[in-house]
Design a protein that fits this description.
42% of the residues lie in helices and 16% in strands. By secondary structure, it is α/β, with parallel strands linked by helices. A six-stranded mixed sheet has the order 2-1-3-4-5-6. It is globular and about 60 Å long. Keywords: Lyase, Metal-binding, Zinc.
């Protein structure tokens, strides 16, 4: 099992390297608990690790990862299955009191592609049925984009659905009463972004224009601005 061996070797490097360098930080986090300011909802895809993309330290980000970085619509009925993502969102917002929720999508998402191509349509659990049921959350957007792509074959349907699903997840976040209330009080801000694996480009949703805009990496000429907000960070 060379893959698992590589993990254990990585742990040794971590313990003798980064862990030693950040020992004080880890000790403080163990004593005082975590107080991350940001909840990130990202895909389980092994190529999209938010702690790497945003170069964060331990304790900075609370992360939920699932297939295609989806947020389900608020559903208080406990008989509708286990609400894993909703539980993590509830904890981050009501207990940790994060100030931002970022839905981080990515290019070339397998879940989005499967939805678009109907790979697991009518599949049984164990054969793609769970994926199909999970991805059915974006079925209306998928159907709209499929129809548009039939009329205009030059449309990049996968990219369009990747962006649409981020917008939909942000809309679904607002269906949680405690999120809508925190946002109305100005204590919580909802953000969207898409990471392009091949280009390394991060496109951030500008709430003013409604568009995803590539973030410049030039520190000298362009200070980082939070799109749709006045204050620089
Ligand atoms: Zn993905």
């Amino acid at each position: 099992m060379p893959e698992f061996k590589a993990l254990l070797e990585g742990y040794r490097r971590f313990r003798t390297g980064a862990y030693q360098e950040q020992r004080r930080r880890y000790d403080a986090l163990a004593d005082k608990g975590q107080a991350p300011g940001v909840l990130v909802i990202s895909c389980s895809d092994s190529r999209v690790d938010p702690t790497r993309i945003f170069d964060t330290e331990p304790g900075q980000m609370f992360v939920v990862r699932n297939v295609a970085n989806l947020v389900p619509h608020f559903d208080p009925d406990p008989t509708h299955g286990q609400h894993s993502t909703s539980a993590a969102i509830e904890y981050a917002v009501t207990q940790l009191k994060v100030h931002h929720i970022l839905v981080l999508g990515h290019a070339r998402c397998g879940g989005i592609k499967a939805s678009l191509e109907g790979t697991f349509d009518n599949a049984q659990p164990g054969e793609g049925g769970f994926i199909n049921r999970w991805m059915s959350q974006i079925a209306p957007a998928r159907d709209t984009i499929r129809a548009a792509a039939q009329l205009s074959p030059d449309i990049d349907a996968c990219s369009a659905l990747e962006l649409a699903s981020i917008r939909l997840s942000i809309d679904n976040l607002r269906s949680f009463p405690f999120i809508a209330a925190a946002e109305a009080r100005g204590e919580l801000h909802l953000q969207g972004a898409l990471f392009d694996i091949a280009e390394g480009v991060l496109r951030v949703l500008n709430h003013d224009t409604g568009k995803f805009e590539a973030l410049s990496v030039d520190w000298e000429s362009e200070p980082v601005q939070v799109p749709g907000q006045l204050k620089a960070v």
